Amino acid sequence: MNLFRSEEHLRRWLEQNGDEPGATMTARKLGDLANAWWSDRLAPGWRPHTRDENQKILEGLGLTDSFWQLP
Amino acid sequence: MEERDLHVRNHVYRRFVELGRAPTFAELQGELVADVEGALLRLQDAHALVLEPDRLEIRMANPFSAVPTPYLVEADGRSWYGNCAWDAFGIPAALHVDGHISSTCPDCGEPIEIDIREKKPMPDEHVFHVVVPAEHWWDDIVFT
Q: Which chain A residues touch B123 with a CB distance below 8 Å?
């Protein structure tokens, strides 16, 4: 899960490594995802997220295609 | 997850924040009245943390990494490593503070410096890429 300077840099890196493209998003959206996913991690009353809770977080950010389907 | 394991898990996270590194197994044994070994193994099975493959030491307490990575995060006067870009963004989110992420572009090696201010990255034009589909993240979480 890496951060690139631009789509051009990502394309070049994928070509050089012979990797298939995965999923991409902007840093702005990653910030929203990180806040939704991690903001309770240090709360005293933390409980593990269920699979469905995590899936709802992804869906809430429009990450609904098969790539983002949790097991 | 049982309360006894949650207690150990919360202690690990609290110490990780305080120390700027993972607490060692020996430290945890000294600080907790608990079956630390059993708790760590159960927490790993529950994907609540990740141990080193060959010893009872913490490798990941996501979003924090116990080993240096390309994602250094400074926040609240201290610094930690994130396991990946997502986790690096997750450290200020978990701490509920502003922060700064230092990394390099995997393609060209040029520095990437991002401030997190009021939950938003500045600048925000960088591109985040995920190789492994969500279904397989925990098949090999260190690679993911």
A: 27
